[in-house]
Amino acid sequence: MLSDRKRILFWLVLLIAIIGSWLPYFNVLNELVWIGPLSLPLAWVLLCNVILTLCALVLYPLYFVPLSDRINELDRQEERNE
Domain limits at 48? Predict the structure, then answer.
């Protein structure tokens, strides 16, 4: 599992990527500069979305699998008590 510093870094990267993906909507990084075949806002949003996708892949086993295990354990305990 992740240590406390790695968790803080993970959530910080996640928050920065979320904020970064919304910057073109607030006219930040919204100039028509081309980076290869993509404009700057599109390249920026695509990069932030790749980072957010990787964060989601890390987040699932970190939080939702233990939550599912705990819920299944509670269901098993309720079945035993009935």
Answer: 4-81
